[in-house]
Amino acid sequence: MGADPNTRVRELLDTYDRGDACAAELLCDRHPAEAVAFTVVESDLSSVDLTYGELRERSERYAAALAGLGIGPGDRVATLMAKSADLVAVLLAVWRRGAVHVPLFTAFAPPAIAFRLRAADTAVVIADPDQAGKLAPGGDMPADPPWRTVVTGQDDIAGAVRLADLPASDTGAPAVTVGGDGLLVQLFTSGTTGTPKGVPIPVRALASFHAYQEFALDVRPDDVFWNAADPGWAYGLYYAILGPLVSGTRSLLLHAGFSPELTWQVLDRFGVTNFAAAPTVYRALRGGSEGHSARLRRASSAGEPLTPDVVAWSAEALGVAVRDHYGQTEHGMVICNAWHDELNAIAPAGSMGRSLPGWACTVLADEADIEAPPGQLGRIAIDTRHSALLWFVGYLGDPERSAQRYTSDGRWYLTGDAGSRDSDGFFHFSARDDDVIIMAGYRIGPFEVESVLVLHSGVAEAAVVGLPDELRGEVLEAFVVLREGVTGTDTLAEELQTLVKKKFAAHAYPRRVHFVRDLPKTPSGKIQRFLLRDQGRTAAGQR
Ligand code: ATP
Ligand code: MG
């Protein structure tokens, strides 16, 4: 990075936001053929290095196969594939054709897959053999789908053609140029607050992914970098696949599902120095940490609030305190406790950091579209006039929900999250707008109460929601998952209430504590509090 972050932002925009931008060139062909893009690690810890030269050769072959299926600029190609060398080659093939990638998470059930395939107007879906069964007709899958199904591997699957069998005669065709405004990916939000929203991602968004890789993650050429997130989601796609490919720095790709034990083994065996993962991953690592430790140079987390107990634990167990980064599918990361030396600043405890270079974030007052004074809780917003890296253009086919994201003058993008900013520009996350609890005039973020509940040795996880109350407007109720071997009793419920009164606030304790086996979550692991509110209302109705 140059001396001035803003100069670097302009350089990146010059590279990615131009009329002749070609995604396959930017993500693959411009890097030295012998450079390693990914070290692909298998569940038995064996590994292979995948070079840019190999990726180019393989993706040219697949691109020719896609051309044979009639895939060209703007066509949608979905993948239902595990994290693998083949996945990266397929993605590059899609972009080589100027086509648009539609990511599908391998943990999705058929309804979630059908919803995205339809909404994205998909022409071809490429699936791993063990996933192809989900595309079979029946239920939500049409008998005569508008998309073609292609499978990787050698198995014969009814209704599908094998990728390896597609004729690939025209391998010399040049990569298609779609320009900075051309579409790269058609992604969907996580669906934490309702139906997922379609977010079209233009090629120029690569500038912001590259910037995050340098400014916030501080990935250096000699790092062993690993972002454990799944590329079926924004965090994994942007920063485990696209970030490494734009910056040309080697990173790990684990061809296996998540387990804390395997994660510890990979960290150890491959000498990871720079690690990124969602808070749930860090919590799981802590749960299975007996006999393990790591010596990381950088550790970053995003996607959900990072609870202080994880930060405290990581300093010792990982060799470095995890830093919190905040973003959305709609923009990627925008507010971060950045790791780069020049941006590095001592953040107050619990802060998710400051606006990254290229982004101007603020907090708007609740009552009017003006900036809130320091420390006041309000709506976290992005200044569309002063955020050079901004690329979001609205939701796919949903002008109504797109319009809700902006103030009436169009100046501010509203993230839908509540928080505050101090006089030094550090942000504190409070809650999603929908999750803020207003009790007797007090605004309470569930996250602060949850952070206290998980301090109890018997508690594995907790979620707090507000439920209607005649007297106080809303009252708090807690849904608590206990650690193995712990039983939920009235005494324990009282203990938890007392803990919150002591460590948070006397008035904001949960009036009712529900002991539950698990919490409703999106496939990416985010707690869906709106479902708990429904559950709480139903239970109240029955009392
Ligand atoms: P949907 O928009 O469909 O309801 P979603 O908002 O969970 O789902 P994503 O775009 O994956 O979809 O997630 C972005 C949201 O995740 C943010 O708006 C914020 O609520 C939460 N988030 C992300 N990073 C952080 C963080 N570091 N701290 C607190 N919350 C975070
Ligand atoms: Mg959202």
UniProtKB/TrEMBL annotation:
Residues 29-385 form the AMP-dependent synthetase/ligase domain. Gene3D superfamilies: 3.30.300.30, N-terminal domain of ligase-like (3.40.50.12780). GO terms for molecular function: ATP binding; CoA-ligase activity; fatty acid ligase activity; fatty-acyl-CoA synthase activity. Residues 448-526 form the AMP-binding enzyme C-terminal domain. Belongs to the ATP-dependent AMP-binding enzyme family. The keyword Nucleotide-binding applies. This is AMP-binding protein. It holds the Pfam family AMP-binding_C. It comes from the Bacteria. Keywords: ATP-binding, Ligase, Nucleotide-binding. One of its GO terms (biological process) is acyl-CoA metabolic process.
